[in-house]
Amino acid sequence: MASVLVVDDEEGFRSFLCEVLTDAGHDATGVGDGGAAIAALARARYDLLLTDLNMPGADGEAVLRHARATRPELPVVVITAHGSVERAVDAMKRGATDFIQKPLESPAALRALVTKIVQGRKEIARPRGDEDPPLTWGAPAMTAFVSALQRVARTPATALLLGESGSGKELAARALHRWSARSDGPFAAVNCGALATTVLESELFGHERGAFTGAVAQHQGRLERARGGSFFLDEIGELTAELQVKLLRVLETRSYERVGGTTTLRAEVRWVAATHRDLKGLVQAGNFREDLYHRVAVVPLRVPALRERREDIAPLARHLVAELAGALGLPPPELSPEALATLEGMPWPGNVRQLRNVLERAVILSDDAVLRPADFSAEDDDLSARGASTSPVELRALERDAIVRALQESGGNRRRAAERLGIGLRTLYEKLKRYGL
Fold first, then answer.
1. How far apart are CA 298 and CA 159, in angstroms?
2. Angle, CA of 21, 10 and 99, to the nearest 5°
3. Which are the contacts of 205, defined by CB distance < 8 A and separation ≥ 6?
């Protein structure tokens, strides 16, 4: 459900739009002029604004300007009369998300447009404070990191989060956003290693209709939808040379164009980047631009590996077990002291992501109300063999099993499998070779 403000001086049309949106499950509020719309925006927060352009007094363009100045993250759809598409296009150049024409094509068309926009907002919606687990439960290594992260969050500086895969870099980026002056704006994230170059460019910057084969309509990029918030570039070390050049220009000028477009848009976001790779080594090898490195590494912060914060493992494991069991609709099992000791003694090269996978497997397969060390063994997927082994987890076997499972669930699509695993496509290819898959 979305909260939608509808602005139109024609009472009948305004009521019709509100009725269509209400029937679709949205919360629609209608006002009859631009002044009332500006007052409504000051009183309440809306997920979407629909405004007519041609109104007496403060018209739709004035409402759009006000929205862009005070709520840059708010999507705005302008309503224009048939034959006035030029005004709608001009409004989109000034920041409108889309437009609809009078008379309305159909109620279904309006519902589809609103659904598309609302789903796009949910994709990059800012996290509430209670959605993410704590960054630490008191481990000294993490306490120092969190303190540094909080200091950086109070500034607009670009941050580079360094650390091993699965160590929680995105969680740290979300916390940085939540503690920043942009916390009321959206948080957008894109994995630079999970998408092909052409797809990634379109996802970042958007594209115009006809920009390439299959571009049947204008597409608003994630960078544009994240206005007023924070933009997280995960696995930035996977960027191709071509995209490195384009990203450098955006960071330097704070401006960009959609693919196939000529209109200059402002990149009104706070940048956060992350990588598990050695960017300095990539620079020395000529695989990453030095000027881009200095742009993203204004404040580099290293996220400690899980084995460096063992004091957090037991409380984190309890939190993850409760979360996983809830998601699976199962009663949360307890972790025996021996199980906790076993988890605390493991090296965890895959960090929190690997710990989560091991615990998820144990929660699913265990028939007991208490998890014990035997529940963390790396057995085959054949359930008849369960209980035959009590050996410690074989980390390589677990990783191989996870890759096979991700490939099966993705129908053999390696790009989607990499997204499921939370690793870059190049990294997946390396692991496929390593395990002979």
1. 6
2. 55
3. 221, 223, 224, 246, 256, 257, 258, 259
Element (H, E) at 431: helix 425-434
pLDDT digits (tens, 9 = 90+) for 164-211: 999 999 999 999 999 999 998 999 998 887 777 777 888 888 888 888
Query: What's at 233, amino acid-wise?
Result: L
Half-sphere exposure of 336 (CA within 13 A, CB side): 13
Compute the C-alpha angle 140/142/144, nearest 5°. 75
Cα–Cα distance for residue pair 134/175, rounded to 1 Å: 9
From residue 33, how far is each of 92, 94, 266 by CA, in Å? Answer: 20, 20, 29
CA quadruple 250, 192, 169, 419: dihedral sign: positive
Distance of CA 427 to the CA centre of its chain: 21
**Residue 235 region, left (φ>0) first, then alpha (ψ -120 to 50), else beta?**
left
Query: Which two structure tokens, joined as six digits, stand for 95?
Result: 């920041």
Cα 241 from chain centre: 23
3-state secondary structure of 86: helix
In what helix (H) or strand (E) does residue 200 lie, and over which residues does it extend?
helix 197-205
Contacts of 188 (CB under 8 A, 6+ apart): 124, 222, 223, 225, 226, 229, 230, 231, 232, 269
Q: Write the DSSP symbol of residue 311.
A: G
Instruction: Return the percent helix, strand and coil in the chain, to nearest 5.
Output: 50, 15, 35
Round to whole Å and give the CA distance between 135 and 151.
15
Residues composing the chain: 437
The whole-model pTM stands at: 0.59
Per-residue pLDDT of 47-94, as tens digits, reads: 899 999 888 878 888 898 888 777 766 788 988 876 566 777 777 767
Q: Which residues contact 412 (CB under 8 A, 6 or more apart)?
A: none
What sign does the CA torsion over 238, 241, 242, 246 have? positive
Dump the DSSP string for 89-148: HHHHHTT--EEEEESPS-HHHHHHHHHHHHHHHHHTPPPPTTTS--S-SS-HHHHHHHHH
